[in-house]
Amino acid sequence: MSTTDRQPRLGLRANLSQFCLLIAVNALIGGMVGQEQTVLPLLAEREFHLTGYTFLLTYVFAFGVTKAATNYFAGTWSDRFGRKPVLLAGWLLAIPVPLLLIWAPSWGWVVAANVLLGINQGLTWSTTVVMKIDLVGRRQRGLAMGFNEAAGYGAVALTAVLAGLLAAHYGLRPAPFLIGLSYALIGLGLTAVFVRETRGFAELEAKYHGAKHSGAGLTNREIFLRTSFTEPALSSASQAGLVNNLNFGLSWGLFPILFATTGMPIDRIGVLVAVYPAVWGVAQLATGALSDRWGRKHFITAGMLTQALGLALIATGDDFACWLAATGLLGGGTAMVYPTLLAAVGDVAHPLWRARAVGVYRLWRDTGYAAGAVVGGITADLWGLRAAIWAAAAITVASGLAVAVRMYETHPRAVQPDTDKV
């Protein structure tokens, strides 16, 4: 439903067509990351002959830093200029990424491609998150985030498998990256022609928002400080999101290499790399909705501890079956955390500064990619691949315990007036 031709109505049912369209767009966004997951670590070793893990992980670091910073600006710009222009800009920047990866004569080109990919992901993924939160209102926020993240990370997994199969049959370049080029062109077309602006929905919700967490006139600096440090639920979500993506960034760079040390073929490595985001993606269809029913805090705590257990099993495993189970467990724990953290931020932030709060949260969360590259790369260089994974497991346990101690429950359990159907 367009906000320009009639009065908007909050709720999933009232906005189902636009919601489903944004789900499809977010799947294409996730696929842009999936094209790299299986192939780039192997490309680094086999074509560019990189041996130091720290240097190899520079592309993950570049992606994480640029995506984190862009998340912040995406939230600010979507409040100022509207959601759709930001989404369009993100898709325009996606088009050069697969071309740079195909033609890269040196590793520096790969790093440059990941700088662009980070900007693309920050602009597009952040904006689709905000747009879905705008549409559904407060009652189904967890469900909306579950569908959003399931689409994105399900596409990461499917594309990682497809890229691995193409690499096994046709080589590491160019075939796997032609998938990403197709995704970028389709995403740009869908956004330009069919996606509608949703900022009016946030303005409507603001009229009915309670006073508890209002502060509608907060400055950008005040929103940053609240979300990062001073507000217990928002800051707890920010640190847990950072650690969650530390694990994903580490897995992106090191898991394929660890699996390859056993002589495992590329197509089986592709399956193992894909299981983590596949379970993560599919399970979010349930976990997001369950957090609407059971609450956010305990789901997040349990999810972080489940991730730590999965990492411990990966660090001790040495065959396909063990790693398959461990990556599935890691994905399940991540599914409990990912949509729930976004829903918690949406619970607490006022609709008029929610996009900026989501941007700050995603800034910290996606700084985890860079943190994973640094922690994983340095630890692996000094003490080996398995030590790096053990370090991530320990950090994840600490994060889960911090949520248990500091975060309060953010989902409204009491019956309140149903403003989502206004």
TrEMBL record:
One Pfam assignment: MFS_1
Subcellular location per the Swiss-Prot or TrEMBL entry: Cell membrane
Keywords: Cell membrane, Membrane, Transmembrane, Transmembrane helix, Transport
InterPro entries (UniProt xref): MFS, MFS_dom, MFS_trans_sf, MFS_Transporters, Sugar_transporter_CS
Keyword Transport: yes
UniProt keyword annotation of Transmembrane present: yes
Domain Major facilitator superfamily (MFS) profile: 19-411
Cited Gene3D superfamilies: MFS general substrate transporter like domains
Bilayer disposition of the protein: Multi-pass membrane protein
Chain ranges passing through the membrane: 12-33, 53-74, 86-103, 109-130, 150-171, 177-195, 269-287, 299-317, 323-346, 389-408
PANTHER family: INTEGRAL MEMBRANE TRANSPORT PROTEIN, RESISTANCE PROTEIN MDTM, PUTATIVE-RELATED-RELATED
Protein's name in the database: MFS transporter
Organism of provenance: Mycolicibacterium gadium
